[in-house]
Amino acid sequence: xxxxxxxxxxxxxxxxxxxxxxxxxxxxxxxxxxxxxxxxxxxxxxxxxxxxxxxxxxxxxxxxxxxxxxxxxxxxxxxxxxxxxxxxxxxxxxxxxxxxxxxxxxxxxxxxxxxxxxxxxxxxxxxxxxxxxxxxxxxxxxxxxxxxxxxxxxxxxxxxxxxxxxxxxxxxxxxxxxxxxxxxxxxxxxxxxxxxxxxxxxxxxxxxxxxxxxxxxxxxxxxxxxxxxxxxxxxxxxxxxxxxxxxxxxxxxxxxxxxxxxxxxxxxxxxxxxxxxxxxxxxxxxxxxxxxxxxxxxxxxxxxxxxxxxxxxxxxxxxxxxxxxxxxxxxxxxxxxxxxxx
Length: 342
Ligand SMILES: [Zn+2]
Fold this sequence. Notes:
Layout: H1 33-53, H2 71-75, E1 78-90, E2 94-106, H3 113-122, E3 128-132, H4 134-138, E4 142-143, H5 149-169, E5 174-178, H6 186-200, E6 207-212, H7 219-226, H8 234-243, E7 249-253, E8 271-275, H9 287-297, E9 306-309, H10 319-341
Parallel strand pairs: 2-4, 3-5, 5-6, 6-7, 7-8, 8-9
Antiparallel strand pairs: 1-2
Helix pairs in contact: 1-3, 5-6, 6-8, 9-10
Zinc ion binds near residues 211 and 312.
């Protein structure tokens, strides 16, 4: 019988201090060449071990081999010039210097497939692999070639589909697309964003997920959240269409956010990864707090479709805090499992 309430994380976990500067996004690597390749693999092993030790059911690579969840994927593609940089506003929120699309984008070789095979060798648990979503990718670039967000997103969707098919063949059980941009560009999401996502999952037999959040706990995001008012109803704009899409699982931010939990009703029927761990604070949730969040979600998500999860990635946190949060997630899910089986 399948385990009820399988736990997982949104994706990234902190890297060891010998591999990259802790508690920093885009942290530069501390190793080079062969040592770096080996160091990334070792970090992946440690990250997996920590997830398994904490009792996480669906494990990941903790994104140990990438510097950033979007940039690292794009670095492996041709058609993007990383030397030619422009300052753009990312997700309408903060300025960043980004690379330029200078020609047709394509994927000459697999990006994460070898890493996924390596993870597959290390564990028998179900594994989830995160990729950036097409809309979030285009939002992290300056486009001097297609001159159309929709066209570029479509090209990226095709590339993501190639990568996803090879990840599936490598034994990945769930492929997740990170689309924080879905929380910002509602008209585009409904016009072509969800269609692009469906292009990215075309023909896949493994399960697919989309992760939509309010971002890492960095200042640009926490400042933005302060402007959103007492109720965060962003999900309301995209849920109705997502509910009708082919995506199997929707991963969301819940605990400590101001998202009205009843919005989950709009995706009834989908599997939902419910964020029960706040990644924007060092305060460790108690198991009871985790259970409370999950209990509230249960009013709108059938028990067999509820996947306890973190709100977002934990890369910017300390390892100690991240480990404690993983333990809290497991313990909280356990409380609820006992309640459900009583
Ligand atoms: Zn996130």
